[in-house]
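ESCALATION

Customer reports they have been waiting on this structure for their group meeting. Please prioritize. Original submission:
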Amino acid sequence: MKNITLILFLTSIPFFSLGQKKNMLNYMNETAATFENCENSSDKVGCMENGIGDIVLKFLNNKNKVGKIIKSTVSVMLSLRIDPNTESTVWELKTNILDLENDLNKELTNLPITFPPFSIEKRTPVSASYGFKYSFKFDKTIKSFKILENQNKIDLSAYPYPPSENLVNVIHPNCKNQENSNYKDCFSINLIKHIRSNLDEKFVKKNIGLKGFATITFDKFGKTKIVDIKSENPEFKTRIKDALKNLPEMEPATLNGKATEITYTFPIKI
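Update from on-call: job pushed to the front of the queue and completed.
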């Protein structure tokens, strides 16, 4: 198994040191969908806003090259929904150039979302809606559009953390002595090792690049209750599902000191 590399990103509720005071920005980072390359961002919603803004900016500059834009300033307002399977849908889009709206809507289809929104209260991935507003101005010096900084952005760190519940995640048998802040890495490492040990080298070498999404639910006793794998490859789904069904029993998650059921969702790529 030395030549096998398996990439796994675990998404769950981020961990904070005991006694650390959390705020609304922390809450949004724990619950918001994650845009591509925003996994380690200190402001995931802001990072997603910037990522989508870059897509729109590239679109506008491409249209400008073929003479499709005659205005020097372009405004864009959009609302989108992201579902538990990470699929995104733009359900409202407005610009000051109506001829661009259909093409821009198509450009924003299937955004690169790596992790879905998460509900702390329900302890499972959920659907969530987001709204963004952009202004772009044509720069004659560089002969292209540039995005204008949002001067009215709200500082979420100035607002209190809303939930009062104290949620502690499931604990892998090999992570019992880890500090709370290191638990996520420890859990991820042990999950990768477990999946590796349950995939034979021949299958992995034959299927480099295969990917999918896994959802695991642990019951209030720390046992694996539900495993769901989404992938276009049936054999990949079966093998990953079988591997995750054999996870060792965990210490259960707790909510306000009481054992509770919890769900995790993460992408897997060979």
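Sent to customer with the following note: Residues 64 and 234 are 44 Å apart (CA to CA).
Escalation resolved.
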